[in-house]
Amino acid sequence: MPPRATLLPGTLDVLVLKAVSLGHLHGYGVLLRIEQITRGALVVEQGALYPALYRLEQQGLLATAWGVSDNNRRAKFYRLTPSGRRRLEAQRASWQRLSDAMSAALDTRPGEV
Amino acid sequence: MWTRLRLGLTALLGRTRFERALADELAFHVQARAEEWERRGLSPSAARRRALIELGSPERIKEEVRDVRIGRWLQVLLQDLDYGFRVLRAHPGITAIGVLSLALGMAVCIYSFSRVHADILAPLPGARGPDSLVAVDTRLSYPAFERIRELDDIVDAATAYLGPTPFSVAVDGEHGAERAFGHLVSPEYFEALGVAPSAGRLLVPGTERAGSEPVVVVSERFWRRRLAADPRAVGSTLQVNGQSVTLAGIAAGGFRGVFPARPAEIFVPVTVGAALAPELEGDVLSDEEAERFQVVARLASGVSMQTAEAALDTAARAQDVPQPDAGERRRAGRQVRLFSAGRVVRIEPAQLRLTVGLSGLLVGLVLSLACANLAGLLLARAGERRREMAVRLALGAGRWRLVRQLLTESVLLASGGGAAGLFLSYWLLRVTSSISPMSPFPVEMNVSFGPMVWFFAVAIAVATGMGLGLAPALAATRGARDAIMRSVQRRPTAPLLRYRRFGVRNLFVTYQVAVALMLLLTIGQLAAGYQRLSGVEPGFDTAGLTLFGVDPGRDGYTPAQSAALLDELPELLAALPELRSAAVAARPPLTPAVAPGAMSGVRVSTSTEEGDVRRTFHFIAFERVGGSYFETLGIPLLRGRTFTERDLTGGAEDARERETPVVINQTAEQRIFGAATAVGRRLLGEHDARSYVVVGVVPDVRPSFLTARPMATAFVPLPAARFRSASIQGTTVLVRSSSDRGAMSAVRDELRRTEPRLTIFDARTMDEHLERFERSIRTAVGPLAGLSLFGLVLATIGLTGVTSYAVARRRSEIGIRLALGAERLHVLWLVLREGTFLVVAGAVLGAAGAFALSRALSALDPDLAQVLGAYVGDPVLLVGAPMLLVAVALLACAVPAWRAVRIDPASTLRAE
Predict the structure, then answer these.
(1) Which residues face B133 on adjacent strands?
(2) How many helices (H) and strands (E) does chain B have?
(3) Residues of B in contact with A76 (CB under 8 A)
(4) Is B839 helix (H, G, I), strand (E, B) or coil?
(5) B513 and B799 in contact (C-beta within 8 Å)?
(6) Which of B99, B350, B419, B654 is deepest in the core (most CB within 10 A)?
(7) d(CA B874, CA B727)
């Protein structure tokens, strides 16, 4: 198992959006998908997941529908709305800039200045 | 926005459904997780425990999710409210004007709605199935009613009544009788109207027969007021018109008769006979000619108004005997018309639609006028706020979020206006309901603030707020954010050059200024005229003069006893130490001459040449007065003599050929006889074909309220025999004492001792009597003044809006001018010029309109003509009203103009 990183505040929402953007998911599925796409590096606290899902739904970024899961049980499925997609794109770009800037800054060696 | 609203609402309302869904979701999670652990080798129970521990407390999760759902919604709302309040506070001027104009507009709307609702939409209190009740618009004879009652296939039931009829009612154990108004009804009355008793029984057709024990029914209000809500009152004995009757029951449900605007408190069956009710004298129940009864019927189901009208018409005239002259006229056209009786105010169905539609239209107009103006103002501000909005949009705020914020603002404004309007309309209702029209019987305009009115007020406040805010909100946030940024940076340059002089908005403002001035001038004219008229001295000393009514015929006096009583009464009272003199009259002095028969045409004949009758008509008010009338009022005799004992008691009634002596006033003398002497000349009454001889002339007194010039008046003797059938208001007794105090109690004491049966009603001093007129006028002028204020406020708002708008559009131009060194005063004038042009144009139009309006009003109504004539070019008003308007209007322009010249040129240039 790879070493785990702590989740920065505010990152859970982006991760949820990203996870859902890859396909309709139920709540538990979101949890698994996040573990999967972060290659297990980021672990989401399960109790924090549901408030986040409802918050995103409230903001109109996620849409929900009841459906049937793989093992034939009734489950609530989440899907990205157009504004959720836009938000994800904006967040992605901003993370990209931040992370580029951070790694550029942190990777700077004495000779390069 | 809507999903959020919906979610928020389900969060608040559909709590349990949401909880269940969340529980299901968490259960699914735990199960899936446990299966996962089982696959990894844990026992089912251990796997499940593990899954539960990982998830944490489901209650805490639920709590957090709830907070997210409700919190978010409330948070946004509170944020909007807070922001709205801050914006409104930041612009106290606009807020005050907005709340004021909306309050006025909404007060007008709420007032007229509650009026229409109470009078026309609300059902008749106390009656069952009011929609099928119809009333005949003319009075019919009792036999005609009986024929209508038999039309089984047309009407389910019918009733006839006489009313409003005064009764003098004495309650056992109470001192003396008091007057109460009620209906003399056919026994079917309550059955036909579907009224239930709250105690005892109501009238029953079979039981109430001539000769059976007389019973009456009273209203709940009467039971409360006069019978002290005594639960044992039913079955007790009352003295009605001097006769003992049994109280059979109390009508339930606030029933106050079939026409509650003229409330009836006591219901007496017609079977009691003429001994109890003098109205029934002369066999009116079988007399085809006695067309005195009002008829109300309940239509059988499926019968249309038209069918019923035709059937009732036939029944009403079935027994008509052909009459040589009057017959033709009476037979032409339909005699019976029906209208709905199931409402407080009776109204024909076609008229109902018209009235409701018209008042709806009027209300809409008033409100839309107020809104259009305010919207203009908000729009101007929205223009100023475009930059703010553009920046916020650029920073990522959703457009709907901004629109919603701006809407919250305008709804807040409208709610403030609505609350103030509610207070205002409540006050208006109180004031107008307290006006007692000059009528001999009580009139009640029962308007109350029911739930419907509250609902209406809230509905129009919200609708107004939404309607008001939507256009500015959309305007402020229109277009893509970058387009707005561009437009903010580079304004279109067209308005720099020319301000559109004849834009719709400008015409609208000109029109408002004109209407405001018209209202100010016309209403000022009316108010000044009324003021002047009400200040006119009545022409005699009112101090120490007291008047009251008596009606011995309704107190069990026989006609002979009545005549004797009223003959002696003045002397009896004048003998009291507290009183100086007393007199009787058919009606109180200074009563409006609107009563039928009060004004009569007379022809004048010259007494010198036989048969030479001039065919000129003069309208004269006839006042029937007893002896010592002029003495008591303190009116001196100018020429001739007053009435003698012989004039008053002499058999003028039965001897047609005898001439009736008449005393006329100066106006009558001058108008009819000119400079010639009047005493000894003759008048021929057109109304009674009787010959009158002038015996005396008295100076003018102010003959009635609302009349600037004295009316030609003839005083004729009031014959004692007339008391047999006194009108509703009875006979007026006037007494003069050295002071107001004590006179009435002395009269009461004396009459209680000598005439214990006699009921005294409507006792008041002459000053109180006059005060009643004045008050009705003051209260009539009040709302009018409010209306003109409304016009002024509207015009002011319109002007401020237009000028602000212009200034907002020319900000950069003004900035450039200032930067290039323009004088501030010059710039101020630049802005003011536009407004001034509109104000002056409006004022000219308004003055012309006011002139035309007062001309039109004068042509329409002679009373109004006198009122308007009384003011004739009051300089204060003629100069003052336009000055006031112009001052206010210029102030309205000056505020935005001043703001404009205080623009910092540097900041404008930076913005460019």
Answers:
(1) B298
(2) 27, 21
(3) 21, 24-25, 28
(4) helix
(5) yes
(6) B99
(7) 42
Quote the minimal CA–CA distance from B807 to chain A in Å: 39
- Comparison of pLDDT for B861 and B397, the residue scoring more: B397
Distance CA B203, CA B888 (A): 65
Please name the helix (run of DSSP H) or strand (run of DSSP E) that holds residue B396, with its range, or none.
none
pLDDT digits (tens, 9 = 90+) for B694-707: 888 988 876 555 55
Bridge partner list, B624? B716
Contact B707, B513 (CB under 8 A): no
Contacts of residue B11, defined as CB under 8 A and 6 or more positions apart, other chains included, come to B18, B66, B69, B70, B73
d(CA B870, CA B243): 52
Residue among A31, A54, A75 whose CB faces B65 most closely:
A54
Contact B28 A46 (CB under 8 A): no
Q: What is the pLDDT of residue B656?
A: 47
- A25 to chain B: which residues are within 8 Å by CB? none
Residues in chain B: 912
Q: Do A58 and B72 touch (CB under 8 A)?
A: yes
Least Cα separation, residue B54 to chain A (angstroms) = 7
Q: Are B95 and B101 in contact (CB under 8 A)?
A: no
Interacting residues of B533 by C-beta distance below 8 A, sequence separation 6+:
B705, B706, B707, B708, B866, B867, B870
CA dihedral B177, B181, B186, B189 (to 10 degrees): -120
Specify burial of residue B698 (Cβ count, 10 A radius: 0-12, 13-18, 19+): buried
Query: Which regions of chain A are under pLDDT 70?
Result: 1-9, 113
Q: Rounded mean pLDDT of chain A? A: 83
CA-to-CA dists, residue B539 to A62, B255, B505, B707, angstroms: 87, 44, 54, 13
Closest by CA position to B125, among listed B344, B341, B313: B344
The tokens 């997210």 sit on which residue?
Answer: B68
Range in B27-31, B213-217, B419-423, B718-722 the model is least confident about: B718-722
Spatial separation of the C-alpha atoms in residues B909 and B912, rounded to whole Å: 5
Task: Provide the pairing of β-strand B338-340 with B133-136.
Answer: antiparallel
Cross-chain CB nearest to B55 (options A47, A57, A75): A47
- pLDDT tier, B267 (very low <50, low <70, confident <90, very high otherwise): very high
* Cβ–Cβ < 8 Å for B336, B308: no
Quote the tokens at residue B271: 């079977």
CB contact under 8 A, B55 and A46: yes
* pLDDT score for B860: 62
Query: Which residues lie below 8 Å from residue B704, measured CB to CB, with a gap of 6+?
Result: B590, B591, B592, B593, B621, B711
Nearest to B64 among A28, A51, A71 (CB): A51
Interface contact flag, A54 B73, Cβ < 8 Å: no
Report in angstroms the alpha-carbon separations of B545 from B77, B240, B438, B554, B579.
Answer: 67, 30, 20, 26, 10
Sequence-distant (≥ 6) Cβ neighbours of residue B271 within 8 angstroms: B187, B208, B209, B210, B211, B212, B214
pLDDT digits (tens, 9 = 90+) for B545-601: 888 888 887 887 877 788 888 888 888 888 888 888 898 888 787 665 544 445 566
Gap between the Cα atoms of B862 and B876, Å rounded: 25
Q: How far is A82 from chain B (nearest CA, A)?
A: 14
**Where residue B343 falls among pLDDT bands split at 50, 70, 90?**
confident
pLDDT beyond 50 at B326 = no
Q: Is the pTM of this model over 0.90?
A: no
